[in-house]
Amino acid sequence: MLKYKGRSYFSLLFILLAVLATGCIDATPNKVNSQYFNIQSQISEDINKMLELGTRIEKLAKIDEKYDSISYQPDSLQWETELELFKKASINLPQYQDIYEVQELPDSSSNLKWVYFKDTTNISKVPEMSLYYLPNSDKIVEVVIEYREESVGFLTERTLKLSYDQYKSERVLKNWEIDGVQKIPGMDEVSFHIKSKVIFN
């Protein structure tokens, strides 16, 4: 495993992972609808907190059986790049209005409050989203998103996860994960995993 500390560049493995993880970038800004959870606003708030606190990232990546890791302190643009896919996985858009069934369910594995969004039309890139909160609270613990992109010649499916915890007096992002697989006809599937941990000074 290769490890780079305090460097401003990424290995070839990380460059390839960035392509697999983020997919095609839509340059058209999305208008926001206020009906559902606003992941774009949440990520912007997270980035501002990370910059204010001067945090670092420890990042582990895997493509099939190849591993790599890196540790660095992102600037504002790098933070946006790191969390770009989560912003893309928004359900709070006008074209998705009224397509999600929303349920508040008991979480059988914990005492957390679980809010579950399910696309009832199969038109969204986000078929499912789960939000977990502390009981009797609006303090978020975890966001889990199923994200799917399909185009001519390939299919990419990802599970995205954001985890939060208390740091001093604030609720902050503590780590995030991207698990995915890319399928191209006539070629072997490519599986990938990225786990990033926030390091507080």
Question: Could you walk me through the main structural features you see in this protein, from its secondary elements to its overall organization?
Answer:
- There is one protein chain.
- This protein is an alpha+beta fold and 201 residues long.
- It has one domain.
- 19% of the residues lie in helices and 44% in strands.
- The chain is built from four helices and ten strands, in the order βααββααβββββββ.
- The protein has helices at 12-22, 39-53, 76-82, 84-88, and strands spanning 3-5, 56-63, 66-72, 100-106, 113-119, 128-133, 140-151, 154-167, 170-183, 190-199.
- It has a ten-stranded mixed sheet with strand order 1-3-2-10-9-8-7-6-5-4, covered by helices on one side.
- Strand 9 (170-183) and strand 10 form a beta hairpin.
- The longest helix is centred in the N-terminal third of the chain and has 15 residues, at 39-53.
- It starts with a strand and ends with a strand.
- Residues 1-10 and 25-29 have low confidence and may be disordered.
What structural class results from the helix and strand content? alpha+beta
Count of separate DSSP helical elements: 4
Low-confidence stretches: 1-10, 25-29
Task: Report the order of strands and helices.
Answer: EHHEEHHEEEEEEE
Distance between the termini: 25 Å
Largest sheet: 10 strands, mixed
* Averaged pLDDT: 84
Radius of gyration, in angstroms, nearest whole number: 17 Å
Count of individual beta strands: 10
Strand order of the largest sheet: 1-3-2-10-9-8-7-6-5-4
Q: Based on CA inertia axes, which overall geometry fits?
A: globular
Strand content: 35-45%
The level of helicity is 10-25%
Count structural domains: 1
